[in-house]
What does this fold into?
Amino acid sequence: NIRLNQVGFYPTASKIAVVVNANAETFLVKTADLKNTVLTGKLSDQRKSEFSEKRTQIADFSSLQKEGKYVIEVPSIGISYPFEIQDEVHKNVAKASLKAFYFQRASTKIPEKYAGKWARPFAHPDTKILIHPSAVSDKRPAGKVISSPKGWYDAGDYNKYIVNSGITMGTLFSMYEDFPAYFQQQNLNIPESNNAVPDVLEEALWNLQWMLTMQDSDGGVYHKLTNANFDRMLMPNHAKKTRYVVQKSTAATLDFAAVMAQAARIFRKFPKEFPALADSCLSASVRAWDWASKNPAVKYEQNKMNEQFLPKITTGAYGDNTLSDEFIWAAAELYITTKDEKYYQNIDFLPVQKMSVPSWNQVRLLGYYSLARFHNQLTGKAKEDFPTLKSNLVAFADTLSSGIEKRSFQTVMGKTAKDFVWGSTAVAANQGIVMIQAYQLTKDRKYLDLALTNLDYILGRNGAGYSFLTAFGSKTPMHLHHRLAIADGIDEPLPGFLSGGINAGQQDKCEGYTTKVADECYLDAECSYSTNEIAINWNAPMAYLASAIEVLIKK
Ligand code: 9MR
It folds into this structure.
């Protein structure tokens, strides 16, 4: 009943625990051995979010700055999990949530040297991928094969989806571009660790190389590389179903264009290591943009596709009906990389009430973030628009956080029940990134504290009482819907993976849910793909938020 960030707190930042259904008066902070009480405080009045069922009280112990390991005690209620107060307290959280991508690599052996007990054999060469009948083109008839190795497995399954790779790569690249110095010194213990290129870029390159293979000769990009149906819970080297690339789509092609434009300017800075990569990425990006301009509304409608073509494809659809945001993101990245103002003409702004945090089907803000990051280099209309862009982003941060003091858990997350969707931990992380962007634009410390509320949410201050990142915290998911973890025979899940988390939808209909309350629905069970899967597009904002906070919260 005492919910808090189970990892810990920074000496100089805010520290809050939330006491659930207690109606108590005081709390004590004790050293973890329970021998000394270092602070006694008064609990706040009770409060409750509309959709929530729990009345909560706030224990604010921000004044405690001494480093150490502690617990919170609420007399007659109980004692919290232990936590630390320490500088760089989320350093390993940031690192592990990035290292997770290494574990998701396809087409390679994962040796013990880098993976410890989670080592596994080579799997999914992906050198003979069938062109699905939905994907034929002049030069590539049905039944022909292409080679499309590497990349990351999307999630708990072993398929590779361009749309979801798009937002994931965009988020990781933005993280690097926002804080390059931090990543210059980070060592993830991956095979490429001992060269001059930051590990985050080497890791992203693994997926970038796969993405490049997904472009057809006309510039369009296949929506995904997939089995016809999901695998059983097998290790990847035993998952040997035929794999296909399916039809090209405008969303995949524009996400690809955005990622490649961003990659071009990033890898341009490493000419010695990658002499031709930046040029290849840029030309791939431009060709993708041109294809999308000629084919602006090719949706991926899996059910319709299945009426026309065999085999039927039943894996993740990532179908998106609104493509305006993909155009904006790709245009923004292409404009920044090429400085060609013709791309910028595609960019517009929305009233703040209509803005939404990034998700795989809503990438508008990724474009805005990049424009904000490079505001000193903007020209023409982009330069004129910058004040609007800035005030919109800041106003959006204010909208998301307004009313926080009335919420059960005092986090930006949970303004409405709608936050608790499939992959809600990534909603929290992405809202945290909005706060970081507002901080970068204003340098107002309050946005940093707001970002931290959502990191606290993810690591334990929430309605389910879990720290949703595996291996971090006392109560963490143990039974993820993650084929690698289910089939490996090892009790602990792979470390550094973010569970999808609380989701009121309960689409998996698993047995064992104990509540329908929006901010509590979560089931730590393998069958619960709608609350307990992992996914690359969730780990990326997690890594961003933890890394940004590590960089920005100063000693
Ligand atoms: O993250 C996706 C979520 O937003 C959708 O509601 C859900 C159902 O379409 O799919 C999620 O993505 C899954 C993908 O389709 C297949 N790989 C696993 C992904 C995470 O659950």
User: Anything to note?
Assistant: Residues 237 and 398 are 48 Å apart (CA to CA).
